[in-house]
Amino acid sequence: MSTHSDTMPHTVTDLYQLVYISHITSIGLSGASTLNDIAEASVNANKANNITGILCYGNGCFFQCVEGTEQALTDLKNKLLMDERHKDFKILDFSHIEKRRFKSWSLRSIVLERWLFKDDRVKKLMPFKPYEWSEYESEKFLSLLQEYYEKQENDTVNDTQPIKYNALGLTLNKVVGEHQAFLLIQAVLGALVVIAVLWFLLSTTM
């Protein structure tokens, strides 16, 4: 991914960005407030380490961009690798930048299922499958996130999460929506099995 120029003299050399994707795990899904927990803990830790960035979730995938010193991001990366709430950790970019994209956000989190309906350009990248994206598509998505940030840069409380959400609830809603017929058939078959077992037990006792 390309770096971004700044009008400031090229004196700050230790500013990097880390962009990665990962899949949520069953452990992550089992927590009713996994995404909120991640966001709240990250805001506090990132403030202490002068890290800024954004975290996106959609279709069972995380997409995150964080900015800070090389050492701070390396330490964060090592912690992320140990986090059992996600897997298939893949770094898209870890490089020097001259300017932060999200300088006022210790970490803003976005659920794409809610956000995508507000921007037709984001819709074109849906369903959210970042593992299948080209480098150009990943950079395009990151640029759209930066535009989203710039529109809200004047918010008085920058680190307040825009919505509350439930990772498991979102995932179950998606699954049920896509597989209603299958689930209905399974429910009917299950009911028939229960009826058959009860009929057999009653017939043997008569």
Give your account of this protein's structure.
The N terminus is likely disordered. The chain is of the alpha+beta class. The radius of gyration is 22 Å and the shape is elongated. The protein has 2 domains: 150 residues, Alpha-Beta Plaits (2-Layer Sandwich), CATH 3.30.70; 30 residues. A 5-stranded mixed β-sheet has the order 4-1-3-2-5, sandwiched between helices. It is built from 8 helices and 5 strands. Strand 2 and strand 3 form a beta hairpin. This is BLUF domain-containing protein. Keywords: Membrane, Transmembrane, Transmembrane helix.
Task: List its salient traits.
single chain, alpha+beta, disordered N terminus, 47% helix, 2 domains, 206 residues
Low-pLDDT runs: 2-12, 162-183
Q: Tell me the structural class.
A: alpha+beta
Strand runs, count:
5
Average pLDDT for all residues: 78
Q: What's the CATH C level of the largest domain?
A: Alpha Beta
Across the major sheet, the strand order is 4-1-3-2-5
| CATH architectural arrangement of the largest domain | 2-Layer Sandwich
Q: Order of SSEs, N→C?
A: EHHEEHEEHHHHH
Number of continuous helical runs:
8
